[in-house]
Specification:
- The protein has five helices and no strands.
- It is 65% helix and 0% strand.
- The protein is an all-alpha fold and 83 residues long.
Length: 83
């Protein structure tokens, strides 16, 4: 299974979002990371807590839904349900 950070970055690239685009969507949801912290998270240098991971996942999943897709990015609690 891929690392969650890898999933976030792959989704961002697939959607064609810049880091700034993703940060703006995340911030609009109430996220408190800076754009630099989002970039570090996507690069794997910063590991988000469950809340911030889920907020990034929501931002990405909303983009997938707007494009007529599903919600492919799992939330932090989804990993526990698979056990």
């Amino acid at each position: 299974m891929a690392e969650p950070i890898d999933d976030l970055e792959q989704a961002r690239q697939l959607l064609g979002l810049t880091v700034s685009d993703l940060w703006l969507r995340y911030f609009a949801l109430g996220g408190m990371y800076t754009a630099l912290e989002i970039d570090a998270t996507l690069f794997g240098a910063l590991h988000p807590n469950d809340h911030d991971h889920d907020m990034l996942a929501v931002a990405l999943n909303e983009c997938f839904a707007a494009a007529g897709g599903d919600h492919p990015i799992p939330y932090s609690g989804d990993e526990l349900a698979d056990r």
